[in-house]
Amino acid sequence: MTRYGRMVVRNALREIGEAQQGEAELNTLASDTARHLDRAIGGGVTRVFNMTGVLLHSNLGRAVLDGDASVRIVREASGHLALELNVHTGKRGNRESAAAAAICAITGSEAAAIVNNNAAAVMLMLASLKRGARNQVIVSRGELVEIGGSFRLPDIMRVANVKLIEVGTTNVTRASDYFEAINARTCAILKVHTSNYAVRGYTRVESLQALRPIAEAEHIPLCMDLGSGCLVDMTKFGLPKEPRVSEAIKQGAQLVTFSGDKLLGSVQAGFLLGDRSLIERANHHPMKRSLRLDKIRLALLTETLKAYQSPQTLTKRVPLFRALARSHKELQRSADKVCETLAPMLASGYSCRTIEAACEMGSGSMPGVTLASLAVEIRAPSQAALKRFDQRLRTLPVPVLGRIHAGALLLDLRAIDDVGALLTNLGGLGSA
Ligand SMILES: *Cc1c(COP(=O)(O)O)cnc(C)c1O
Q: Which CATH number fits domain 67-317: 1.20.120.80, 3.40.640.10, 3.20.20.120, 3.40.50.2300?
């Protein structure tokens, strides 16, 4: 079987040869070359079992998609499709129409623009609100967020070519602060959901409702970067209240932005929702073309949004909500099975048992909030032995990622959809 073509093998041999000191053995040269090529181009997707206790792990791809539905959708969307064609009229259509209609139906928004991620949505929103010299955007000092991995609000504003006008203080910003900053060059008031931190103590932030009369009287768009994109009532899952997109719109935000792969539970995407005329401006902005989604992601996103038609379909078809809805009983059953599988494979001095644990949402969503879960706790004779065991789990056919906490390795069960596959995979430890 030919695994790699002549050209890449020749290049690999040359690179290895250049790094080589002294004579090379022929068989080590062959295995070195194979390893080099596997590393360089053989990689592709590395599936993992996320047992870290962080449900939306940014380093592990944030929200998980439903496997079966995704395979079907990708197959359907891979061929030719009526992406920008209305098949009934034969006229040109809009690639976003299905996803936009779905998100508007869920949130009560008039219109939607869909882009690469929320950072892009914020950038497009700001760029499209600017009107020549009217380029000032008012933001509270308490809401100038940085979201991990290079999203910093002041930087986004700079690339969107608008001028940041900071008002208030870190802990207190009043409606009058916004009001006093408004002038003939103001093009927007922007509120930002401080999704990944909380300021406690003597604090005051103005609600959208409080700012709405000011924005209306001055004819200035009131905008909100919601970040996490919560569409449903999270208290149903035993979590605290999280501002919902529909609420922000009802409370008077004319434009709202949020991510597709956080609490919404779908692919990486960014939504810009709100007043039809403002959305049209965003959709006609030259930046839009370079930020738009491809057909596959749009199809997957639409599929997730369809699941929002009822609480039952949501917890059945969207893995994030499946995980949130997973009962203590189911977690217990899974944890017991993992323990049963691991126990016979553990050397003496090692132990495993099921313990109560706490999950977090991750990806900067719901900071400080934990969700009850169960984990398999593994103890080893020494820290070094525990690290080695953790390493062995990471080198299984499908790497198993847990977390080391208080001298033990915890494997959290809440994010595990397919316990059978996990058990089979853990079986690989025996032969290791
Ligand atoms: C997560 C987040 C962003 C960035 O969203 P991406 O989809 O990761 O680009 C921006 N603003 C807020 C408030 C966020 O929570």
A: 3.40.640.10
DSSP state of 366: E
Domain boundaries, the chain: 6-42, 49-63+322-429, 67-317
Q: Which amino acid is at 231?
A: L
**Residue partners of 144: CB distance under 8 A and separation at least 6:** 153, 154, 164, 166, 192
Decide whether any atom of ligand 1 lies within 6 Å of the 415 Cβ: no
423 alpha carbon to ligand 1 midpoint, in Å?
35
* Residue 40 amino acid letter: A
Task: Point out the ligand 1 atom lying closest to the alpha carbon of residue 365.
Answer: 15
Centroid of ligand 1 to alpha carbon of 371 (angstroms) = 22
**Between the CA of residue 124 and those of 7, 110, 208, 416, what are the distances in Å?**
43, 18, 21, 36
Does CATH number 3.40.50.300 belong to domain 49-63+322-429? no
pLDDT at 3: 76
**CA-based R_g, the chain, Å:** 25
pTM of the model as a whole:
0.92
The model's pLDDT over 43-70, given as tens digits with 9 standing for 90+, comes to 788 999 999 999 999 999 999 999 999 9
Q: Does the beta carbon of 260 sit less than 6 angstroms from any atom of ligand 1? A: no
